Amino acid sequence: MCGHDTSGKPRGGAIAVLNSSMTSPQTCGWCAELTFHTPGRPGSPLATHARLTSVGGEDLTDFTKTSVLIHESGDFTRCAEDCGLFRSFDFQSAVLVDGGLALEMELPHPMEIQVGDNGIIGRRVSMRRTSGDASMSSRELPTAEGIVGFNFLAKA
What highest taxon heads this organism's lineage (predicted)? Predict the structure, then answer.
């Protein structure tokens, strides 16, 4: 990265770059960043907040109906359903920030920023969006997937 980073994006913690799920033609080309961080403490080993930022600048208002699943495994050679469930949360209590370009929320439980044990680094993440269609109200549609990695800003 050249120059100074003046964005409001959280640094430190963890990040998953999410891309459209292979099984989700309705979100073809959609890309987002899901960050896990503790505000004001970029070096914290725990994340207390999550932020979803659309890379393409799409309106995220409807994403409050989105569930995030963190899987036991990071194996993309298997179906997400076969990767086990480590943690999950939804963006129902999230608020729009950065002029509506991001959703941010406090996590129900802090998450460890480490590899292995109770850490989230290296785990697969799936987003599931609940359909707004009343006839499909109980169905969750796969939206995007990625792998959680470290999100540290290198010191100059």
Answer: Eukaryota
Strand 119-121 to strand 102-115: parallel, antiparallel, or no bridges (unpaired)? parallel
Q: What share of the chain is helix, strand, coil (3-state, %, to 5)?
A: 10, 45, 40
User: How far is Cα 127 from Cα 106, in angstroms, rounded to an integer?
Assistant: 17
Dihedral of CA atoms 57, 63, 67, 73 in degrees, nearest 10, equals -10
- Does the pLDDT value for residue 89 go beyond 50? yes
Supply the pLDDT for residue 137. Answer: 41
Domain contains 156: no
Q: What's the structural domain count of the chain?
A: 1
Q: Looking at residue 124, which CATH number applies to its domain? A: 2.60.40
One-letter amino acid of 72: E
Q: Is residue 56 in some structural domain?
A: yes
Q: What is the pLDDT of residues 94-137, one digit of tens each?
A: 998 888 889 999 999 999 999 989 999 999 999 987 655 544 44
Q: Tell whether 116 is covered by a domain.
A: yes
Choice between 144 and 111, residue whose per-residue pLDDT is larger: 111
- Predicted confidence at residue 16, as pLDDT, reads 96
